[in-house]
Specification:
alpha/beta; five-stranded mixed beta barrel
């Protein structure tokens, strides 16, 4: 690798490092990674900047010895031309027994071009969110799985003790709790008819919505990053004449939690009392617990 190659790839490392730091400071990283891992992006970006800067100011140069070795496949030592007993034409005969290096590939400029082009396009046109079809693939409309987990007993007293209420006396329930309650008969009995407040983003409803007057509220659940993202949601049923939020709005939806059976599946349903706009959190992801 020549000094020019080293400098060009140092430039590429600096570019990637700057990109990671940009993602960290612009908060775009919140749409891809759990907040607990954000500082690793900053550390990685700084590390790449240091590596790239070092390559730019201190490129590796080829030694004369290496250059002479490339000119002939063996060490000439201290022999002069008079004592040189072999033929260079034979040494450089590119037959089946070629024992020295050849430069191959498409060169550093093409490599950088092929790296930067898709990167710039992705940075420019990526919307930093899933489409409705993408959310559907991540579980937006999936039924809650019935669970047979050996969990400790849970009662209405435990709910009163551990879950806060809003000013109207409604339980500020986690979305994942309301969603998976439909998969546990014991929890269903406790949550049935419960006044609750759910916070999340609005999406269209596809399930049991022939009249088109329902919406769905959902949250994104992750372990570390968007690759393992799962979406859980609850159907919203509005009273006649009630004001409906817009799609993709971040809201707090209050009402009565109940359950309905659709094609043999038990699903959670929130009968709306009120839906109000809410301040969107720094990251809409909720970490899987």
């Amino acid at each position: 690798m020549t000094s020019l190659d080293t400098r060009l790839f140092g430039f590429l490392a600096c570019l990637w490092g700057g990109l990671l730091i940009y993602f960290y400071h612009s908060t775009r990283i919140r749409d891809y990674l759990d907040i607990g891992f954000h500082h690793f992006i900053m550390i990685g970006g700084i590390g790449m900047l240091i590596l790239g800067t070092y390559s730019l100011i201190n490129p590796k140069l080829q030694s004369k010895k290496n250059e002479s070795s490339k000119s002939c496949g063996h060490d000439h030592g201290h022999h002069d031309e008079k004592h040189h007993s072999h033929n260079h034409k034979q040494c450089h005969d590119h037959g089946d027994q070629c024992d020295h290096d050849h430069e191959e590939g498409h060169g550093p400029f093409i490599t950088i071009f092929l790296t930067l082009t898709p990167l710039i396009l992705a940075m420019t046109y990526t919307q930093d969110k899933l489409s409705n079809g993408g959310m559907a693939k991540k579980g937006l409309y999936e039924k809650p799985a019935l669970t047979s987990a050996n969990i400790p007993p849970f009662s209405r007293q435990d709910l009163e003790k551990n879950v806060p209420k809003n000013e109207h006396g409604e339980f500020q329930l986690r979305m994942i709790s309301a969603y998976y309650a439909a998969g546990d008969l014991e929890i269903q009995d406790i949550f049935e008819g419960l006044p609750v407040e759910l916070e999340g983003r609005i999406a269209p409803e596809r399930i049991n919505n022939e009249s088109g007057d329902r919406l769905r509220i959902f949250r994104s659940i992750i372990t570390c990053c968007a690759a393992d993202l799962q979406i859980v949601g609850v159907s919203l049923e509005f009273p006649e004449g009630a004001k409906r939020p817009q799609l993709e709005d971040w809201v707090k939806a209050s009402g009565t939690l109940t359950f309905e059976t659709v094609e043999g599946d038990v699903l959670p349903l929130l009968k709306i009392r009120e839906v109000i706009s809410a301040e969107e959190p720094y990251s809409e992801f909720r970490r899987r617990q």
